Predict the 3D structure of the following.
Amino acid sequence: MAITTLEQLSKYLDLTEEEKSWKPASVGVPLCITEHYLSLIDPKDPSDPLRRQVVPTCRENENLQSESKDPLAEVDHSHGERLVHRYMNRVAFLATDICPMYCRHCFRRRFTGNMMGSASRQETEEAALYLKDRPQIREMLLTGGDPLTLSDMQLDEMIGTFRKARPDLIIRICTRYPVSQPSRITDRLVAMFKRHDSAPFYLMTQFNHPRELTPESIRAVSLFVDAGIPALNQSVLLRGVNDDADILEDLCNKLLFNRIKPYYLFQGDMVSGTGDFRVPLRRGMEIEKELRLRLSGLGMPNYVADLPQGGGKVPLCGNYIIEEPDKEKGSWLIRTPEGETRILADS
Ligand code: SF4
């Protein structure tokens, strides 16, 4: 049984003043915490990194001038309510606005948790038609909300509609269920995806802290990976949750060991009401530099920002090129990860 009110929550956790004074905002996500995730929270620690991700505080009610409810300008790039076409070769289809549990740092809070429910058959068919006419679109993110809130049957129909229009489309299944409610992932669900595998699926997870990788969540992801659906993880860099090289090193190593490739580490988007979670860029870059020393290439996520006003994704790694000292010979002065220098010549 999920927790949906502060009153219910207060039976499990001693709520702080900041938590008690949270007010649901017009641009904000509802309170909903799954039983599974609640069981992972340390009730004795008011700063528990898992608690911070799901228990709202009054800080969410503060909006900064630099923030916006849609910093990625998704609305400007939308075709209908559900299809976002921001990049030339891929689209996002917002299958639903509902999630089994709501993250306080959610970047799509303009849409998520408005209780509109799943995309209608007509919306799905219109999106499929859009894709049919545009072969340059190679990938679709099936996202939301969390698309796995749809029943297996609804998903079967939705994916069947897309597959009929575009059997060659790569589909990324973007879900936090392995973290929030891993029991949702069943053999039956995975078999349903496999029935539509005329083109690959990828599972995109969001583990932000090593304690979220429980035996249940590892089992859930394994069902996909064993069926030939690769898993990649997109973490968000969050203040008081994982803004620490030791925690992220541990997370990335555990992900890799469990066949989940650390893919992205996102700088927090400039979304209204999420300022409490944002890590200063300088600190983020220090962490990235430290992780690069400690992790293998396979274990290292790309630290990126999705720039405001729909500016797109950019990598935020340090600059290792110091200068090009000899333009004729094309020799470059480059910094090593340890801070020494080397010359790399073109010929
Ligand atoms: S699961 Fe994703 S869409 Fe849902 S609240 Fe969390 S970040 Fe937002």
Q: What stands out?
A: The CA atoms of residues 257 and 299 lie 9 Å apart.
